[in-house]
Write a structure and sequence with these properties.
This protein is an alpha/beta fold. It has two domains: about 180 residues, Rossmann fold; about 40 residues, no CATH class. Helix content is about 40%, strand content about 20%. The protein has eight helices and ten strands. A five-stranded mixed sheet has the order 4-3-5-6-10, sandwiched between helices. A three-stranded antiparallel sheet has the order 8-7-9, with helices on one face. Helix 1 crosses helix 7 and helix 4 packs across helix 8.
């Protein structure tokens, strides 16, 4: 089932509600949405693409956010408003999972969305219902291995390559994934979608507060104007 929400195309699921075991994947663009939709359960896993980088919700007003196409789509999908009007009992999904590309733009977009939840839907964070799922950045294949090896960071990748070299395996092929849409279906399901094999990280308010401190420190070091930072 596909619904249209103010510029965001929701691939919905059949079950909803806080006790339904349902979850919403918020992803970066249509390519990622198509990839996740191919491997998710239509019964209890929905997919919503965010088109472009989200507005900075820390500096925006409630009316700004509710009139923004990206956030309006998200609010309609979740079934509730924000700020003082937020109602946790109306949220249509038990879990919200952020699944963004493993690059600088994806990290930035994910952080902006995390800050949105922190300021405008903090009870969702406090209830432990927002999670982060991350696809691998690297895949290594060799005829001398039992199967592909994966790395989530450049550090892990270089460590894995070094281990293979130390083990005498020098004939291998490496692939760097450019985004969620470029990851194979089996790999995407294994690491991000299938509850039996994936590893999600729960996002808390402390994570958002740490992100604010990091960006504020970066802005201070760069001596950037307040209008250019994440927060004022």
């Amino acid at each position: 089932m596909t619904d249209y929400h103010n510029g965001g195309k929701l691939d919905d699921c059949a079950r909803h509600g806080s006790e339904s075991n349902s979850e919403l994947f918020v992803v970066e663009g249509d390519s990622a949405a198509r990839a996740v939709s191919r491997v998710r359960s239509q019964q209890w896993q929905a997919v919503l693409p965010m088109q472009g980088k989200p507005m900075n919700a820390i500096k925006a007003s409630q009316s700004d956010l509710e009139n923004n196409a990206q956030y309006a789509a998200l609010l309609e999908t979740l079934g509730t408003r924000i700020g003082a009007d937020f109602d946790l009992s109306r949220v249509r999904f038990e879990r919200i999972i952020l699944l963004f590309d493993p690059d600088a733009d994806g990290i930035h977009a994910r952080t902006l969305l995390m800050l949105f939840f922190h300021k405008w839907m903090k009870p969702l964070l406090d209830a432990g219902r927002i999670f982060d799922a991350r696809v691998p950045r690297w895949e290594i294949n060799s005829a001398e291995l039992d199967g592909p090896q994966f790395a989530s960071t450049d550090e892990q990748f270089h460590g894995l390559r070094q281990k293979l070299t130390d083990d005498g395996i020098v004939d291998f092929k490496t692939t760097r994934f450019r985004g969620v849409g470029s990851v194979g279906a089996d790999t995407l399901a294994r690491f991000c979608v299938d509850p039996e094999t994936r590893a999600l990280s729960r996002i808390r308010s402390e994570d958002a507060e740490s992100a604010i401190q990091v960006f504020e420190e970066l802005r201070r070091l760069m001596n950037a104007p307040a209008a250019d930072g994440l927060v004022t």
